[in-house]
Amino acid sequence: MKCITVLCGLLAFFWATMGLFAQVTFTYNNATITTVPYGGSFTLSVGWAITATRPNKVDVFLNGSSIFQMAQPFPVQYTLTYPMSGVDSVNDGYYQVRVSDSYSYALNSAPVYLHVSPAILIQPQDTLCLAKSSTTMGIAAGPSAATFQWIDAATGAILWTQARFSPTVANSGQRIFCRISNSYGSVSSTSVLLTVVAPPAITSQPTNVVAMLGTNARFNVTATGTTPLNYQWYKNGLPIQGAILNYIILPAVTLTDAGTFQVVISNGYGQTNSNDAVLKVVTLVSIATQPASLTVAQGQDASFRVSVSGSEPYSFQWTKNGATLTGATNSTLQLVAVDYSAQGAYAVRIANPYSQVLSSNATLTVVAPVPANIITQPTNLVVTIGSNATFFVNALGTSPLNYQWLKNGTNLVTGGRITGATSNALTLASVVVDDAGQYRVSVSNAYGTNTSTNASLIVVVPPANLSISRNASNSVILQVNGTPGFAYVLEALTNLNAPLNWRAINTNATDTNGTFSCIFSNIQLFPSVFFRTRMP
């Protein structure tokens, strides 16, 4: 019984559906196929007449998909209009209308076709654009699914096949037009001028330069871009006045010209900076001090040296009698404990990356060793207190010679007022009384020692404390204090009228206690007598 009831319900629904569909008559107000230019307008108009139930919903379909729906009670006779403006490819296709009530629907079986043909709404304009940037030349055209072809007006060559394209500088100056086409037509724009500009782009960077001192140095750069291109060179970040070309020449470079160079290139559409390029100013290698000839005793070390100038790095190679010495590749050639076979002519070849030079020959002479021998002894000195005293010795022998000065048998040390305690000249500055004594020097080398004879240093004190007294015979006794062992001069003056005529009355050595005595007789012969003492 239940199955019969369900079946009856299905039959009733099918009959209702078929009944509405069978009782709907559609009326078309459009042509079966309508072609509308891109951007134009189109109104779909479909009417119906229904002899059964009133419909309560209407759907508009495009290519089988619902694009519009209205749900409300509709009259049994009605004309539906569906307007469209600015048509494009999305509007292209076949349209159908479906009316329905709560139980059934009816779909018009004869669709209306709408096709969109090409059209230009806005013509392209003369355009200036940057290279490789995109442009449409200002054109507004369609439909979007149509084929776009930008064509060289002069040659007919197809340049681009999209509405938006990216030209290069090579396209600058071309007159072009656009052809838009599809299955429903074709249209061409007016021709317009395409101007393509480009910011500067460096195609060849400046490179590092190594220039010899006094020669010219040059940096170059190559760039593309819309002319005119402007150049400004910089050194160490500062602009170089007048350096406004695609190259820069530095004449007769000096060491101060070395630095880091860069160029900034600009035009009306942008600028670019080059890579840094370094200028290195170099000089030829030259010898500042030649190796010197040597004479050394057998068994001693010998050392040749050379000093050089010029750009580093340096390399050295010593030779003996023109033959390369293995391992001798420093500025100093050290020969240890030489014998007679080491004698010869030594030279060194010096090179840097830019030049090389050969030194002059330096001769090595090997002789038999000679012990230290004094040939000029130090001499006695008499100096005034506060003065400087210097002892000299002259010695020969195989070098090196070593010196040691002694005072009263004790080694002296350089320092304070003493200099040269281990040299051939000993100096005592600003001598005092205690500096007086016996001085000698010991001269030695690896083969012997020789000690000099003693040399005395007498420190003279100026005469002082002149005293006058009389003895029993009425003679004048003159006494003055001075330095033991030193002679002073006593003088007398009997007339103060100019010119003064001082005359020596006695010259004698003081006695051991440092007191100098003199007797002046016949003083009664003179009305007045004046006395003085001085150093000789």
Describe this structure in words.
- By secondary structure, the chain is mainly β.
- It has six domains: 2-117, Immunoglobulins (Immunoglobulin-like, Sandwich), CATH 2.60.40.10; 119-197, Immunoglobulins (Immunoglobulin-like, Sandwich), CATH 2.60.40.10; 201-282, Immunoglobulins (Immunoglobulin-like, Sandwich); 286-367, Sandwich (Immunoglobulin-like), CATH 2.60.40; 373-460, Immunoglobulins (Immunoglobulin-like, Sandwich); 464-534, Immunoglobulin-like.
- Helices cover 4% and strands 51% of the residues.
- It contains one helix and 54 strands.
- Strands 2, 4, 5, 7, 8 and 9 form a six-stranded mixed sheet that branches. Strands 11, 13, 14, 15, 16 and 17 form a six-stranded mixed sheet that branches. Strands 19, 22, 23, 25, 26 and 27 form a six-stranded mixed sheet that branches.
- The radius of gyration is 62 Å and the shape is rod-shaped.
CATH level-1 class of the largest domain: Mainly Beta
The CATH superfamily title of the largest domain = Immunoglobulins
What CATH architecture label of the largest domain applies? Sandwich
- The total beta strand count reads 54
Class by SSE composition: mainly beta
Instruction: Assign the CATH topology of the largest domain.
Output: Immunoglobulin-like
Give the overall shape. rod-shaped
Percent helix range:
under 10%
Share of residues in strands? over 45%
In this structure, how is the largest beta sheet organized? 6 strands, mixed
User: Given the structure, what is the number of helices?
Assistant: 1
N-end to C-end Cα span: 173 Å
Low-confidence stretches: 1-22
